[in-house]
Amino acid sequence: MSKEPVAVVGIGQTKHVAARHDVSIAGLVREAAVRALEDAGLAWSDIDAVVIGKAPDFFEGVMMPELYLADALGAVGKPMLRVHTAGSVGGSTALVAANLVAARVHRTVLTLAFEKQSESNAMWGLSLPVPFQQPLLAGAGGFFAPHVRAYMRRTGAPDAVGSLVAYKDRRNALKNPYAHLHDHDITLEKVRAAPMLWDPIRYSETCPSSDGACAMILTDREGAARSPHPPAWVHGGAMRSEPTLFAGKDFVSPQAGKDCAADVYRQARITDPRREIDAVEMYVPFSWYEPMWLENLGFADEGEGWKLTEAGVTELDGDLPVNPSGGVLSTNPIGASGMIRFAEAALQVRGRAGEHQIDGATRALGHAYGGGAQFFAMWLVGAEPPPG
Amino acid sequence: MSDVLSAPLVVEFPFTRSLGPVQSAFLTGLRERTVLGVRTEDGTVLVPPVEYDPVTANEIRDLVEVAPTGTVTTWAWNPSPGRDQPLDTPFAWVLVRLDGAGTALLHALDAPGPDAVRTGMRVRIRWAATRTGAIADIACFEPHDGEPGATEPAEHTGEFADPVTGIVTPARLDYVHTPGRAQSAYLAALEGHRTVGERCPACRKVYVPPRGACPTCGVATAEQVEVGPRGTVTTFCIVNIKAKNLDIEVPYVYAHIALDGADLALHGRIAGIPYDQVRMGLRVEPVWVEGARHPDHYRPTGEPDADYDTYKELV
Predict the structure, then answer these.
(1) Considering only CB atoms, which chain B residues are within 8 Å of A132?
(2) Is the full-model pTM beyond 0.80?
(3) pLDDT tens track for B83-96
(4) B:91-120 residues touching chain A, CB 8 A cutoff
(5) Of B223, B207, B225, which is closest to residue B215 (Cα–Cα)?
(6) CB atoms within 10 A of CB B195
(7) Yes or no, beta carbons of B18 and A21 under 8 Å apart
(8) What is the domain extent for residue B201?
C-alpha cells in the first residue's frame, strides 16, 4: 500500500522577539497553535495528535514539555509525543508528524516547536563542567568558527562572502513581519565593520537570541480537500545522523547532510536541485554556513558554493533564493528554528509568504541541522500533490 | 576495578519564568494569603489554576478564591526530607482539596508521624512569614479542627497591586560521573605527561582521548597507542569574548590540534605566539603547569609548518 500524501494546511508563528515577558511558555506556544488552526480553518477537536519539539532540556530547564503543555495544545485525551534532536529538532518534529499522517496512523496532526531563549541558558547549557575533562574554551560560536576557517581554506573563498549573506538575510527579514531582527538602517558596510567575536565570525554574522514558536497542521488528502487555502504537499522528507566527533568526520560538509539531501531528492524525483528547486530555507546560524550548505545540499559543486552567494544567486531576486524569510540569522528561537525553515518553505509553495514571496515558487526545500553538525532533517514541499 | 575514577557532577542553572496572566494572579495571591483557582467550562474549580481548559482546550480566565482550609485526599510519608523540600523534619506529602476547589493541590503536611495522618483529615495552610509570590509562600499544611471554609468559591478579579510577573526556578541535577576504563587509563598516562589513545581493531584509527569503542565501527578498542607530544594546528578561531568561569585574557586562540599519530584532532588553546600569527599547519607542543591534569596550552615548536595535505583530513 502506498503512503498517504501529506499536506500542510495550517501554519502559525509568533512575532519573534528578544523576550516575551508577557506570556508563559504555555501562552507562547498557544499563540502559534491558534494561528495555525485559523489558517487551516480547523478547531481543536479536529486535531488527532500533537507532536512537539524543543531544544535540549537544560537550555530552558523544561524537562517534560509534553506534560506541561498538553492542555495549552488541546492534547488532553489525544496522543502527544516529543521529539529530541538538538538544533534540528523543529525539522525532525515536523517529519515525525508527517510520517504519522503518511502511515495513516492519524489523519490530522498538530506539530509545534518553541523556545524562549530569554529564559534559557543556551550558551552554557551544553558546556557542563564534566569532571576530568578539559574545560571547553569557547561558546557555540567558538565551536563552529574553526569549521568556517577550514571551509575558507579548502575553497579559497574570499573573506567578504560571510558579510554578503548576513546583509542579504537581514534585508529579507525586513519583508517578514514575524522575523525578530528588523534593522531598517542595515548596510553592507555596517555588517563588515562589526567586531569579530570568534574570528573569522563577526558579531553581525551570528544569529540573534529569540523567543518564539512555530506550528503547522498536517493532514491527509481529505483534509487537504477541505483546506480554505492552497496546501503545500510533502514530496520528500528524511533525517540522518552521525556521531559528533569521529576520525574522518567532515565538519565542513558532513556525510549525513549529503545522504539526507540525496534521500529527499530521490523521493521527490529531483535530479538537478539547482534548477528544479525554486526556494530554499536552510539553517544558517552563522553566515558562512550558506555557502557550506549550498555545497552539502548539492546546489553547487564542492568548493563552488561561495560563488553562488557572491554572484547574487541566493538573493530574493536571484535564481535560487536562499532564506527569503531572513533565516536563522534574523530569527533564532533555537528549538523552533528548524520548524520555521520547514514552515517558510511551505509558505512559499502555498503562495502565502507575503512580501517575501518568491513569484511562482512550486518547489521549496526546508533544512535543519543541529548538535555538532550531526543531526539533519529536510523536506521538499510542492504546490501540487506528489505524483503517483 | 580500583583505577576507574568517579567524581560528583552538579548541573545547576537558575531559570527565569514569565508567568503569564493566570500564574501571575495565583502566585501574587499567595503573597497576599489568597488562594485562587480557575473555573473550567464545566464548572470545576482547578487549584492551582491553569490557562487552558483541559477538556475543551479553550482559554479560561474565570478566577475564584477558595478557602485556606481543606481535606487530605491522599498522602505519603516522607521520612527523610531532601534538599530544598518544604520542611527539614519528616513530613507527609499530601494532596489537599481546598474547600471550594474541585481538584487537589500537592504540598507538605507538618505532622509528628505517619500515625497522625489519614485520608479525609482536615488541614489548613500555614503561611510563610516572608512571602514573595511563590508556592513556598505556603510554608506547609497543618492539622485543623475548625469550621470548614465556604464550599462556594467567591469570584476574584485576579488583580493585585504590584503583581509578581516572573519567578526564578533553579533546576539542579546531581550526578556521579564515571569516565570509564579507557578515559581513566588516558588520564593516568597524562599524569606522566604522556598522551595515550586507543586504536580501533577494525578501521585502525587512533582515538585521542579514547572512548573504549570506535564510534564508526561500533567495536571495542583496547590497543593503546602513545601519540604526540607534538602536533599540528589544523584549524582555529580567535576568541574575542570572555568565556564564563575561565580566567583567560581575550583575545586568545582556540585550535584543533592533531597530535602526531592521532586520527582526529583535539581542542586546545595556543599561546607563546601573538594571536594574529597563529596559522593552520603551525607545529605545536603541550605546555604543562604544576597541578593541572591537562596541558595548560600548546606553544609553537619552531618546526616548519606542516603541509596542508598532511592534515586536511584532520580538521
Answers:
(1) 5, 7, 177, 179, 183, 187, 293
(2) yes
(3) 889 999 999 999 99
(4) none
(5) B207
(6) 24
(7) yes
(8) 179-227
